[in-house]
Amino acid sequence: MELPEATRVHLTVGLQEPPWTSQRRHFSALIPKKEDGKKRVWEQSQLLDVLEARIQQLQSDVIVDVQHEKVQFVKASKAGIGDSSGNSPKNVFGERPEVPKAGQTISKGGGQTGKGEGKDASASKSRWMEKLSQEKKTKTKKLKQKLGLEDKPVKSSKGKLMLPGTSHKTISTKAGIKTASTVKKSKSLKNQEHTMAASKHKHTMAAAPVAAANVPIRKAKGKGKASKEPAPELSEARNRAEEMERKAEAKARELAEVEELERKLNQWAVSARPELVQDNSEARVYGDVQRSVRCYLEACVFCGDIDRAHRFLLSHHRMVSRRNLLNIGLYNIMMRVWAKKGSLNQIGRMFILIEEAGLKPNLGSYCAALECMGRNPDCSPHLINRVLRQMEEDGLPVDELFSHCVFRQDERDMVLRAIHTVQPDFQSSINTILQTCSSPLVKDFYTERADAKYPKMAFSLEELQERFSRQLSIEQASTITIHSVEAMKPVTSHMAKMRDLLAVQRLVWHKALVGALREGKIILASSTQKAVRLSLYPYLCLLDEKDYVDIMIQSLSNLPPSGESLHILAKELGNRVHNMFCIRMKGHNQMVDKLSHIYNEYTELLAKDSKEFDVLPRERWWKLEAEHSSGPSLLGDETHWPHMVVVELGTYLVDLMVKHMKVNSDLLNSAYDRKLIPVLYHMYTFRSNKQVGFIKPHPILTQMQQDAMDTTLTFDSYVMPMLCPPVPWTSAKFGAYLLTPTKMMRAVEGANQHEILLEKCQDADLHAVLDSLNQLGNAAWRINQPLLDIIISIFNDKGSEKLDVPPPNSEAPKIPRYNQQDSATFTSAEKAHLKREVVNAKKKCSEMHSLRMDALYKLSIANHMRDEVFWFPHNMDFRGRTYPCPPYFNHLGSDVTRAVLVFAEGKPLGPGGLEWLKIHLVNLTGLKKRSSLAGRLEYANSIMDDILDSADNPLIGKKWWQNADEPWQTLACCMEIANAVRSPDPTHFISHFPVHQDGSCNGLQHYAALGRDVIGATSVNLIPCEVPQDVYSGVAQQVEEFRVRDAEKGLKIAQVLEGFISRKVVKQTVMTVVYGVTRYGGRLQIEKRLKEIDDFPKEYVWDASHYLVHQVFSSLKEMFTGTREIQDWLTESARLISKSGSTVEWVTPLGLPIIQPYHRSRTQMLKATIQYLSFQITHDSKERPDTVKQKNAFPPNFIHSLDSTHMMLTALYCYSAGLTFVSVHDCFWTHAITVDTMNKVCREQFVALHSQPILQELSNFLLKKYCSGLQSEVKSKKFLEYQRMLLLLAKVPQTGNFDLQRVKESTYFFS
């Protein structure tokens, strides 16, 4: 709404306008511009009268000292500002505006003027008063014309002349630049309201003048005669004025809230850690480049090409434009090289280069210098003292050399030798005091250990040490070759012929690739590239040529017949080279011997024949490492290769394969003319409307591999489960496998935001997270051999889609073939139909091959481990959800893989164990979800004949187990029950079988607990009930009620859906809505379920799914009101945070920092020889956040972080109680005898978790992170967004009155 020019003035008495007010003109008001004309003009007139009355009051106030009055009319933004409390007004940032000295005025330019300029100021003021009066007359005239009143002059009360002593009261423009007569009329109604609110809140105005100013009353022609009754329009105007006043008061309260919040933020800012507000923009800009340069230098150094590395560093240093890319770590790499050679002159030159670059030496720099001096027996003690003094001047204690630096080979000994030259009695002191996690949730776990029963493993010390040696050998080899389960098939003559033929061809390809690689390296080494260019040459020298060729041929065996994307294939090859390099690097650094020594002592904690310890695995390992501090460090400082380096290297290897792997065309059919043809073809295909490079095998290779049915499979060593307990996680960079590099937190390829956050964490803050990962990894497993044999027999027969055993490729549909002559007679519609048939057949064949190979890998690994005990090391994703590291075979897999896994340690069933086995069996069938535990047990007892028949005759009996939801786990449970009931005493039967307890829609459980929502808590079994409440059935019932209502109203689709709304139709949508599924995604889920119903008319699928998803969302909104409020608050918070230019971060109640790596995508081009590859990079922290992904992902990711926290707490306290515990997210596993104990711990930790002020702590963290420590310029430029975010983040959703303690009594919370 356009306002008169005069309304935008800023009235100041002895006070300059705050600097941030000049920025608010850039934001439009929230009131729509299209408004009723009468209302707009009338409200403008009202504000003019208010301003005039206020001016009169100021002019008549001659006794008030203006130096203490400080009256302001602040130009307010649409969100409201200008109100402050106290005698001395401050802006919302707590800054006191500049106050001019006595006798000075504020000029219209915003500066202070001298005493002699009062006359000019008075004249300027008079001109302004004249302009204000004219504006009022014009607006009043327009107002009367709009209202249809006679056009009669309105008598306006002129302001009195200014009295002596008030000449220094001036009226300046808003920005202090333009005069009142030149400012455009662009203020909104909101700003009027805020100006009135500020004026009213700041000073109490006389009631009569305000009333007179608010509503002008017409007077009769005769002098002193009262006017007629006010017109209806005037009554309406009064109501509007009152409404405006109420809004103004609300805004005043809002402003007071903003000021209070900023006062808190200012207090937090004083004590906040610097990393909460620091923005290392330079590190973001150069981080990827520095990582590439560092990896290049490390590769050159490892392969011994020191000259290349030195030239590369110097070329960057000499170019000022590239010198900014270098950091101190890159110079230190070369310093370590010269230190190894004992070259003091080169070390001195490196210090000069560091000084020229404007960098400061760090501990690594001085460590290299001291190492070099230690290697020189003739080094002067004076020189060593000089280095130590310089360290002291730089604030770097000598002790920190040994606690912060990473040593290789004998570097530590050399540094000590140099120090002992001048300080013979020096002893490096290492802190051996164990810090504890500060989270109150785990305080008892770490402090009260008297009653802890940390479990031992059922192995002797010697057995564990022997297992360690076997695992170490496997990882040093980098790969492992195992027998395929298809090798169990009888070998035919054709099969043997194809195997021999394939073996011969592999030898030919191996020789050709070695020669091609050798030639390629010579070309790259002699190329005249600029010294500043990164070359692939050093990456091709890290391993033996044979190793590169083995990696290439291994990938050939895994290539599907339909081909593979060049990007994916290149990434796999590059990662294999990187993993092998890291393993070789650890061997080169001589850390394997030290690792063996520490691990052998660590096994004393786990072995059954050793003494009892009251420490955790992480604490024991940390202490042993401190005791054996001499020699190399176990934690390497190798840099993970950037994604582009990995792909570029892999692409080069793929190019070699395409060009040099050839086969005779008549190899399988002598009728063809003999010529050499490529084994692999590089082609292009379209995926999601994008052209993608593809590598496809020739049909000759595919035919040979399929007919040969190779007896062996080769995997990377990390694919296999470990043969010994994993190395405990002691930091975010060290743990899991013995030598294979593993990240504690998984991330998108190339994203490193998570690593940066973890590095900033205090070590103690991550202890609970690390200990929970160690607990999960220490669970020992073995194979259920009888069940595995049954599955393999079906797999080697023809498979079974019903039982989730994929059939062989021979069962795939034949791809239709049409010759050119026949197709010429087809119509266009027939040709399109034939084309669709071919596409569908190829798609089906590709899917069947993928499923078959996946099952082959899993079953072959299981068969290889059939006589072993093994372990799964764990890590986590960026939300804190835990996963086993081996990718194919683990307990998070399908029904088949879960069924063949049992605990290695057996425990007696005890008095209630058999009952839990029976209840677990019924849960696996999915038949009695609404029944009580007693009802399920009764049902299990009633079908004992079917259970025993399934166990005895799984493939030829009644096959009752095959109709269960999880058929293979059901069969495994039948076998366990049969063995138990047939034992002499079931209570003493040793059971290895894991019993599951699954959360009841766990995401909604967390939402209901956060919001203390009684109705929601009842629906998801947080409240004790006689029978389990099924939220899916509840939603289905609510949707059915909506459908009946709409059907009665004659809605066609509601009538069609009669009898088709079931629990199964809505379950997936209800389950995933809490994790952020949209209406579009929900509609697709329901559409899929409806298509599975044979009787449902297919022509109504789209309309029905659209209707049902709307009803499901409406039902959930009614049933879970608190959930929607919290979800909306999280979504809107993430939207405002990402719009401000930041990614959403938070910290879990256990202290794990989390960041959402969703940024706007950018395209990056890789110019490889075989083709140009284009990448969509979505995790680049230099790009602005992706607002849509940030806001949609925050609610589900936050809930995932809570359910992972609950799982970790349960894991820790179960470990303290001596239980075997593993989890599949919100499904917890343990022995039958310990189910009751696990259930108790699970409920207690859920209550403890949600007894914390989770949402309030989240609010405080977000306020500190995104609203604290901001510069005033940032606030003023985007003031409205800042204020809106401040108020929203502080406004935590209100909670209900649900009593969390009732969860402890709920039987079906987890069941």
UniProtKB/TrEMBL annotation:
Protein name: DNA-directed RNA polymerase
Gene3D superfamilies according to UniProt: 1.10.287.280, 5' to 3' exonuclease, C-terminal subdomain, DNA-directed RNA polymerase, N-terminal domain, Tetratricopeptide repeat domain
GO molecular function term, any single one: DNA-directed RNA polymerase activity
Region (Disordered): 81-167, 219-243
Organism from which the protein derives: Oncorhynchus tshawytscha (Chinook salmon)
Keyword Transferase listed: yes
GO terms (BP aspect): mitochondrial transcription
Quaternary data: Homodimer. Component of the mitochondrial transcription initiation complex, composed at least of TFB2M, TFAM and POLRMT. In this complex TFAM recruits POLRMT to the promoter whereas TFB2M induces structural changes in POLRMT to enable promoter opening and trapping of the DNA non-template strand. Upon metabolic stress, forms a complex composed of FOXO3, SIRT3 and mitochondrial RNA polymerase POLRMT; the complex is recruited to mtDNA in a SIRT3-dependent manner. Also forms a complex composed of FOXO3, SIRT3, TFAM and POLRMT.
Pfam families: RNA_pol, RPOL_N
Subcellular location: Mitochondrion
Function: DNA-dependent RNA polymerase catalyzes the transcription of DNA into RNA using the four ribonucleoside triphosphates as substrates.
Cited InterPro entries: DNA-dir_Rpol_C_phage-type, DNA-dir_Rpol_phage-type, DNA/RNA_pol_sf, PPR_rpt, RNA_POL_N_sf, RPOL_N, TPR-like_helical_dom_sf
Domain of life of the organism encoding this protein: Eukaryota
SMART domains from the UniProt entry: RPOL_N (SM01311)
Repeat region (PPR), residues: 327-361
Any Gene Ontology CC annotation: mitochondrial DNA-directed RNA polymerase complex
Keywords for the protein's UniProt record, in alphabetical order: DNA-directed RNA polymerase, Mitochondrion, Nucleotidyltransferase, Transcription, Transferase, Transit peptide
Family statement drawn from the similarity comment of this UniProt entry: Belongs to the phage and mitochondrial RNA polymerase family.
EC number: 2.7.7.6
SUPFAM superfamilies named among the record's database cross-references: DNA/RNA polymerases
